[in-house]
Amino acid sequence: MSDGLQMTSGSRWRNFLLDYVAELRQREGHIFLVLASVIGALTGLAVVAFMVLTERMGMRLYPVGVAPWRRVLFPVVGSLGTGYLLYRYFPNARGSGVPQTKAA
Description:
The chain is mainly α.
């Protein structure tokens, strides 16, 4: 007798899921609208977080009233460090992107 209950319960769940999927297919535009809104909101938050992070890093590197040579030192050291990394670990990373590609 319990087998009959499980069969009807299983078929009830299956029918419920099939009906739910059919309903979702009818509202596909609404689902995409909600997903696009969520993705847009998360992307906006990531942009704001990046801007806050870079501003705070700039305030730490270039505080008010510091010696002017410091404004030249950090970009030069950063450029030299990046150049070394490119030379040492990424020797084939040359060019500026799409204009530098060659047709095969």
